[in-house]
Amino acid sequence: MSKQNIAEKTKSVFPWLLMILMSSVTFVGILSELMPSGVLPLMMDDLNINEVQTGNLVGYYAIASAIFAIPLISLTMHFNRKYLLLLLLGGFAISNIISGLVYNYTIIIILRVIGGICAGVMWPMIAAYGMRLVDEKHHGKAIAVIMAGTTLGISVGMPIMTTIGNDYGWRTEFIGLGAFILVIAVISFFALPSTPGEKLTKSSSPFALLKIPEVLIILLLTLLGVIAHYGVYVYITSLVDEIQLAGGVEMALLFFGIGSLISVLIAIKYTDKYLRLLTIAMFGLIIISMVIFLMFGGTTGIGHFAFFLWGVSFGPLVTLLQAAVSRQVETAKDVATSVQSSVFNLSIMIASSAAGLLLGIYSPMSLVYLAIALSIPGIIISVFAKKTLS
After folding, report:
1. CATH homologous superfamily for 202-384?
2. How many other β-carbons are positioned within 10 Å of the β-carbon of residue 265?
3. CA distance 136 to 148
4. Which end of the chain has fewer surrounding CB within 10 Å, N or C?
């Protein structure tokens, strides 16, 4: 049997262990970004900073991810994928460990920006790297497994890390995450296959991609879906207080997390075959869950079920949109996913700002109306985008 036949046979078997290892990278990636939000009061007291400055620890990270994703993905296209990923893991580890050791706010902000830059490159490149290790018919499955780490990070990792931070101090939390990232880097060094980079051509540049109508449709769906979800999610505490949900935000996040995990499993199994149907369902379920909040949100049991349905809608958001954009190009999938990833991060910032403005004028229910208003065109576009989401 020739080397090519052996390689093809290896690709046809889905490499679960490698994909789970890559999923651990997205798991620590989302923790690295969101971790300060769980220990904001502790960081405020220790560093003697105000609430806005503490919020910037997450905000600057996200801004750096959005700004640097496209240019740095383009610049690093020719890098070996394995060694680029190891470099990024090193950046994450250093950013977190040194943040846990220093006492100067400005230095910590610089370290957070470094972490954000690493994230801006990691999110799009790891999905493309994973796709190159599997047969084309498993591309959606690979993205779903790899990106499952983000859902696990939000639903399982964040509560654990926040508990560690509250019990042992935020510095222990940061240093501990950095050490865990180094362990993942060592395992990746020995386990992940070496994969060469690609040449960036005029036809695969970010500007060329923006001329493809199907890519623009997916970017529009990203904008609508992300603002609809995150506009409510960022202020989930306000929504819970408004509807007076039994069990408070902890119960809301529990049901939301369960729904997210279930939908990730569904995405792993069905994204490759039913991408359009799953995208339609994603927008449909957020509309249904938001309508339930409006009509029966305060009713015990029904309100909890609404959070579960919303979680089912939220879970596969990244997977479906990255799978969709990667289908529009044959090569340079990293660039395609970097464009989508930048729009995703930009949409989170728009969602946070727009929702904050609405909350300043209206009740938290205004965010629910915003989610419905954005999801209706999302579902209509998904229904008619047969070619794009095929």
Report:
1. MFS general substrate transporter like domains (1.20.1250.20)
2. 14
3. 19
4. N
Burial class of 19 by CB neighbour count within 10 A (0 to 12, 13 to 18, 19+)? buried
Q: Closest Cα partner for 283 from 258, 254, 316, 260?
A: 316
Structure-token pair, residue 375: 């999801």
Q: How high is the pLDDT of residue 75?
A: 87
Is residue 233 a contact partner of residue 354, using CB atoms and an 8 Å limit? no
Distance in angstroms (rounded) separating the CA atoms of residues 97 and 168? 15
- Alpha helices, H only, the chain: 3-12, 16-38, 40-47, 51-75, 81-99, 105-131, 139-152, 158-168, 170-191, 206-209, 213-233, 236-243, 248-270, 275-296, 302-314, 317-326, 333-361, 365-384
**CATH class, range 9-191:** mainly alpha
CA 282 from centroid of its chain's CA atoms? 16
**Amino acid letter for position 82:** K
Distances (CA, A) of 322 to 51, 126, 156, 235: 34, 11, 23, 25
CATH 1.20.1250.20 segments of the chain: 9-191, 202-384
Look at residues 210, 212, 217 and name the one whose alpha carbon lies nearest to residue 382: 217
Q: Which of 282, 303, 284 is nearest to 292 (CA)?
A: 303
Q: Tens digits of per-residue pLDDT, 92-132?
A: 999 999 999 999 999 999 999 999 999 989 988 898 899 98
Rounded Cα–Cα distance for residues 321 and 221 (Å): 8
Alpha carbon distance 357, 29 (integer Å): 29
What pTM, to 2 d.p., does this model score?
0.84
Parts of the chain with a pLDDT under 50: 1-7
User: What confidence score (pLDDT) does residue 372 get?
Assistant: 96
